[in-house]
Amino acid sequence: MRVPVTRVSLDDSPSGPNEPVTLYRTAGPGSDPTTGLPPLRAEWIAGRGDVETYPGRDRDLYDDGRAAVRRGGASEEWAGARREPLRAREGRTVTQMYYARQGVVTPEMRFVALREGCDVELVRSEVAAGRAIIPVNVNHPESEPMIIGRAFHVKVNANIGNSAVTSSIREEVAKLEWATRWGADTVMDLSTGDDIHTTREWILRNSPVPIGTVPIYQALEKVGGDHQALTWEVFRDTVVEQCEQGVDYMTIHAGVLLRHVPLTADRVTGIVSRGGSIIAGWCLGHHRENFLYEHFDELCEIFARYDVAFSLGDGLRPGSLADANDAAQFAELDTLAELTRRAWEYDVQVMVEGPGHVPFHLVRENVERQQELCDGAPFYTLGPLVTDIAPGYDHITSAIGATEIARYGTAMLCYVTPKEHLGLPDRDDVKTGVITYKIAAHAADVAKGHPGARDRDDALSKARFEFRWRDQFALSLDPATAEAFHDETLPAEPAKTAHFCSMCGPKFCSMRISQDIRDAYGDAGEQERIARDGMAAKSEEFVRLGGTVYLPDPTVPAR
Amino acid sequence: MRVPVTRVSLDDSPSGPNEPVTLYRTAGPGSDPTTGLPPLRAEWIAGRGDVETYPGRDRDLYDDGRAAVRRGGASEEWAGARREPLRAREGRTVTQMYYARQGVVTPEMRFVALREGCDVELVRSEVAAGRAIIPVNVNHPESEPMIIGRAFHVKVNANIGNSAVTSSIREEVAKLEWATRWGADTVMDLSTGDDIHTTREWILRNSPVPIGTVPIYQALEKVGGDHQALTWEVFRDTVVEQCEQGVDYMTIHAGVLLRHVPLTADRVTGIVSRGGSIIAGWCLGHHRENFLYEHFDELCEIFARYDVAFSLGDGLRPGSLADANDAAQFAELDTLAELTRRAWEYDVQVMVEGPGHVPFHLVRENVERQQELCDGAPFYTLGPLVTDIAPGYDHITSAIGATEIARYGTAMLCYVTPKEHLGLPDRDDVKTGVITYKIAAHAADVAKGHPGARDRDDALSKARFEFRWRDQFALSLDPATAEAFHDETLPAEPAKTAHFCSMCGPKFCSMRISQDIRDAYGDAGEQERIARDGMAAKSEEFVRLGGTVYLPDPTVPAR
């Protein structure tokens, strides 16, 4: 079995050669977007003998919105291969959790263990216990399996998707490729406007990472945007449509109960989750319980036939510091814990979504409470932002909270881009968001003491100390930007190997002086060690004697 | 007494008018850079009757480097007013710490208390105890007093300064203005190249905030860049030169002792502080103790005559995660604690510098250890960066560590710009660095529960919830960027008051739905409260009865 990695070859150090550094890689094999990726997992899925093909739902132009009905199709139809959908044979369950609980090690688990550099039994046992998920819809064979759980590397999700106001199908596919190139571990397609079905088809066929969605957005489109007109039937139809396309996990706001909604009335920012507010509006408009909660078992039965994972939505997450950790938020979390256990009865994989906007000192409570209540089900949080005063910089305000929450056990972080609260992210924003979150995830891995997490830091720092600029760039999260910044002040090619940089200039470089010190007194070999220890003894003696000698006849060559 | 503030007037809410929000302001009164700022504090200083004017050091063209000697002056001479320097009369001490310990409340303390919105006795007692400093050289009367201490708002320092490779005097003055405009509380001039004296003169005469320096950089210039040629005499002369100009605090690497240096030999990145490596190189080259340590009492005597504060440099701070919290770093900290107490014997104000590069889980130990060892002297840290793998994004890697370290008591954060490790910051980098650090400082204030810290968050969140876009921009750390991002997708003027934004589009806005819910069931007035409680009772009863009713005849208007 082969897994994707990026291998970085390094130049030699003065002390000898450096081992190449192997980095986790999410970018996939690459392909022409109009034909899609090869179905890596097709044989694994078929090989288990527990799925069947079936005709699937009929094409319905309404799936792409009213504009598609008018023009007789999406604005750009998917022209690549169309496979008949798969589902579990009647009475079978095809989830990784089911297999894991049966003691079966799947190729997906082996793939994941190789990527993570861990024992496959850790993967199987964590999935079996519900503490990790491998989101792999049988209808998304293009994806390279990955795992979300606190025992593994912290993961990053990037949101893309068009809206009623802006953007095209091709742009969204380009954002997908861009996000995975910079390290997004999963991507959520949050499209809400026209072409919603076809955009998703393009994305799934081209995605090497799991794709998540929020099906209520499309269900709402189907009822003309009137949330009071939503029904379980429309929602169920939408979920099946997306299961057949291959969506790997879906955000389901089943925890927004009728009795929770009044708890939000005195909040500074009410309900800020789109899904949450749609459901809350529906509940109150109908004076009825949330139909997602009422039909949760039916959802479990559907998800079990495709291996779709729940991402239990936190529809009542706080939208401002003032609303953090309040009664509404924690009441919903109690319900999400109940739903987690219910899904596990069906062997359906579950993660639980978390906030949002939370003051820094209250962040930790969120993950510890979720982990306790939900028996260790993976936590998947949006930031959280630790202040509300920096629109335009919320990738930063949220990366601070994200590092803290991941340190204490959050398994996946949903990125926030600089455009949060202000507009739709463009290509640059997607990149900035992903890299910012790779920083948070990695810093948390290091803080958790995850095995090998610090190797990349150490390799880069060593390269920095030795002025191996090329290696320093190559080991960076964003080599192009690092190199461009360096070149702004020192563009010449020789400066790439120069033993100084523009901060201090050639005369003044602390790294160089430091290297001189090491050359003179430090470093490995026995001779140097003796010299150094002798030095230390001498200096200690010097201090003990209280000597105050200094240069008796200072030479000031420059003046 | 009047103190500078920014007052933000807000539009009315549906529920009534909003009080204006008052923000701390660092930008100063503004002026023509060629004439400088008015000497706000001149009368206060003179009024105490404990200073004298004197001719000061002679102009020496070498102060500006060899190029100035060649051309007969700096590249652009300071043409504004030149005052004779002040110093304490013989036998007097003119530090704010001295006054505070005598029980004297100075105008500087009153000014600070007004800015902080706290009792002046808190200011006096914290300064007297050494837990806070007010850096105010008697020769920098242009500055608006501010305080650095854990009982007050967390402060942010911005570094500027030319280097041997690049930049001009005017550019540095423009960076100063730019940095304080975005909220820098102090600015350090780290110039190392030509025009070093004159650049500092321009900066001081135009700075409304305290200016810090690292005098060894200039001392090294004076000896032609050869650190082995440094002497106490050259260093002392440089310190006096800078005291006379008005530098408010100076980084002094007196904690780099000869016996500490060998502790760095096995580090991944050795000594990364420029000052630290210069001193370490000198110590080893001469086999002598650090002359700054040896002459520390003399420095205290000098500083006491001008009220210059020590910023005790952490010359052995870690330059990589691998070197964090190691023997070298903590050995130096022990020495800095000893020096803190020695300075206090002279009533000289002190803060202590801290790292650097530190894994997230080891950050807290740094500040707690420093606070304990140094009896609460203000801690002033550079980040720390919580990972080494993101050159080009180190404003972010370090803001994460900065928030954590400030939460536990660091009083001032030295910013890091995106160019860290790669090049000299330009104007945009300075802005990005300052704003990123305002985020960290503010998030820490909120986390510490600093009185009133969250008011700005709450006001902005309320504006956001009510679609008062103009107010949201005005309350932001960077109004122009917030507005520009908003306008990218919704540029029309009416969109500034539109009850939706481009993320969701008009049909789909969770804020709007949420407002509808509040209008129907929530919010202030008694009537609504009754309605809501009734609603809650009804929904609870509904759940208790286990009702599963949902829409019997769904209407799907769109299809």
UniProtKB/TrEMBL annotation, chains A, B:
<feature type="binding site">
    <location>
        <position position="380"/>
    </location>
    <ligand>
        <name>substrate</name>
    </ligand>
</feature>
<keyword id="KW-0456">Lyase</keyword>
<feature type="binding site">
    <location>
        <position position="509"/>
    </location>
    <ligand>
        <name>[4Fe-4S] cluster</name>
    </ligand>
</feature>
<feature type="binding site">
    <location>
        <position position="421"/>
    </location>
    <ligand>
        <name>Zn(2+)</name>
    </ligand>
</feature>
<dbReference type="InterPro" id="IPR002817">
    <property type="entry name" value="ThiC/BzaA/B"/>
</dbReference>
<feature type="domain" description="ThiC-associated">
    <location>
        <begin position="1"/>
        <end position="52"/>
    </location>
</feature>
<keyword id="KW-0411">Iron-sulfur</keyword>
<feature type="binding site">
    <location>
        <position position="188"/>
    </location>
    <ligand>
        <name>substrate</name>
    </ligand>
</feature>
<dbReference type="GO" id="GO:0051539">
    <property type="term" value="F:4 iron, 4 sulfur cluster binding"/>
</dbReference>
<feature type="binding site">
    <location>
        <position position="501"/>
    </location>
    <ligand>
        <name>[4Fe-4S] cluster</name>
    </ligand>
</feature>
<feature type="binding site">
    <location>
        <position position="217"/>
    </location>
    <ligand>
        <name>substrate</name>
    </ligand>
</feature>
<comment type="function">
    <text>Catalyzes the synthesis of the hydroxymethylpyrimidine phosphate (HMP-P) moiety of thiamine from aminoimidazole ribotide (AIR) in a radical S-adenosyl-L-methionine (SAM)-dependent reaction.</text>
</comment>
<feature type="binding site">
    <location>
        <position position="353"/>
    </location>
    <ligand>
        <name>substrate</name>
    </ligand>
</feature>
<feature type="binding site">
    <location>
        <position position="159"/>
    </location>
    <ligand>
        <name>substrate</name>
    </ligand>
</feature>
<feature type="binding site">
    <location>
        <begin position="314"/>
        <end position="317"/>
    </location>
    <ligand>
        <name>substrate</name>
    </ligand>
</feature>
<keyword id="KW-0479">Metal-binding</keyword>
<keyword id="KW-0408">Iron</keyword>
<feature type="binding site">
    <location>
        <position position="504"/>
    </location>
    <ligand>
        <name>[4Fe-4S] cluster</name>
    </ligand>
</feature>
<dbReference type="GO" id="GO:0070284">
    <property type="term" value="F:phosphomethylpyrimidine synthase activity"/>
</dbReference>
<keyword id="KW-0862">Zinc</keyword>
<protein>
    <recommendedName>
        <fullName>Phosphomethylpyrimidine synthase</fullName>
        <ecNumber>4.1.99.17</ecNumber>
    </recommendedName>
</protein>
<comment type="pathway">
    <text>Cofactor biosynthesis; thiamine diphosphate biosynthesis.</text>
</comment>
<keyword id="KW-0784">Thiamine biosynthesis</keyword>
<dbReference type="GO" id="GO:0008270">
    <property type="term" value="F:zinc ion binding"/>
</dbReference>
<feature type="binding site">
    <location>
        <begin position="273"/>
        <end position="275"/>
    </location>
    <ligand>
        <name>substrate</name>
    </ligand>
</feature>
<dbReference type="InterPro" id="IPR037509">
    <property type="entry name" value="ThiC"/>
</dbReference>
<dbReference type="GO" id="GO:0005829">
    <property type="term" value="C:cytosol"/>
</dbReference>
<feature type="region of interest" description="Disordered">
    <location>
        <begin position="1"/>
        <end position="37"/>
    </location>
</feature>
<keyword id="KW-0004">4Fe-4S</keyword>
<dbReference type="GO" id="GO:0009228">
    <property type="term" value="P:thiamine biosynthetic process"/>
</dbReference>
<comment type="similarity">
    <text>Belongs to the ThiC family.</text>
</comment>
<dbReference type="InterPro" id="IPR025747">
    <property type="entry name" value="ThiC-associated_dom"/>
</dbReference>
<dbReference type="GO" id="GO:0009229">
    <property type="term" value="P:thiamine diphosphate biosynthetic process"/>
</dbReference>
<dbReference type="InterPro" id="IPR038521">
    <property type="entry name" value="ThiC/Bza_core_dom"/>
</dbReference>
<feature type="binding site">
    <location>
        <position position="253"/>
    </location>
    <ligand>
        <name>substrate</name>
    </ligand>
</feature>
<feature type="binding site">
    <location>
        <position position="357"/>
    </location>
    <ligand>
        <name>Zn(2+)</name>
    </ligand>
</feature>
<keyword id="KW-0949">S-adenosyl-L-methionine</keyword>
<dbReference type="Pfam" id="PF13667">
    <property type="entry name" value="ThiC-associated"/>
</dbReference>
<dbReference type="Pfam" id="PF01964">
    <property type="entry name" value="ThiC_Rad_SAM"/>
</dbReference>
